[in-house]
Amino acid sequence: MGKQADRSEEIAFLILEDVLGIRIFLADSNQVDGNVDGRWTHDGRSGVVEITGPPAEEQMRAFATAERKGEQSLETGSVERHHNRLAEYLSLQLAEPWAAANVAKLNAVDADERHLFLVARTVYDHEYYARLSDTYENGPVERINALALPEGISDVWFEGRAARGFTKLDPMTVRVARYNRLAGWSTRDVTLEEQQLPAPKIVADTAAAGWRRPRNRS
Hints:
Blueprint: H1 7-20, E1 25-26, E2 38-42, E3 45-52, H2 57-69, H3 86-93, H4 97-107, E4 113-118, H5 123-131, E5 155-164, E6 172-180, E7 184-192
């Protein structure tokens, strides 16, 4: 007991709560290996969620090292856009070992709904996820086909672009794409108060001590 959600988990939890009208509790608050991240019951139905994303250990270490040195961390190289084939590419991504391990955790739980919430940790993966919910006001619309969901999974969520006010402590609006096995694609903008979120781990926190008040989910 006593474990708190980290920043990525809390952002995902708040988004799901806003869209689904539920209240999420930490399923792994007792820190037992193999538990999913969150669970809920609502209107007689149960649900679980796992927050994960493509591995990026090397890039995250580079971010942390640059932050300690007061330097910028940049990603270099090129990225395949997979234009109008993005859903097919992401379907293959969901079959990769890192995704399969998280799907197995979800399928090991008896629940009516099993949700996978994907967070991008690199610029390249974030570009893919963001394009699922972009409005394309100044460019061509992405043709997003059906997603091949892993067996037993009801929903996959993709965290997209975020925008906030003038300071790092202003509210943040996150655009998210959701693929439901029955309903298909939908998008939503969710506004989050920075005070509700844990402090970021990589960059320095500009909030005063005691200002943050994330929800106790244990």
